4Fe-4S binding protein (Plebeiibacterium marinum), 57 residues
Amino acid sequence: MEYPVVNKEECTGCGVCVEVCPMAAIELIDGKAQINNEKCRNCGLCLGECPVGAIKD
Ligand code: SF4
Ligand code: SF4
């Protein structure tokens, strides 16, 4: 399975993706979103919710 990837250059650390992820797979580390692939179920929600489009397939 392929997982979403956060572009750390673009991530503003707003935390929206952390809030929307139903699997609690995203946390902020040093102000940047980090996706835990062990928890991610590839639902795609975070991709659409990131206000700056920093999460890609
Ligand atoms: S929603 Fe986007 S900008 Fe905000 S923390 Fe997540 S990846 Fe970063
Ligand atoms: S694809 Fe879904 S489960 Fe995976 S990190 Fe994004 S919101 Fe969470």
Summary: The longest strand covers residues 26-29. The chain has one domain: 5-56. Residues 5-56 form a domain with the Alpha-Beta Plaits fold (CATH 3.30.70.20).
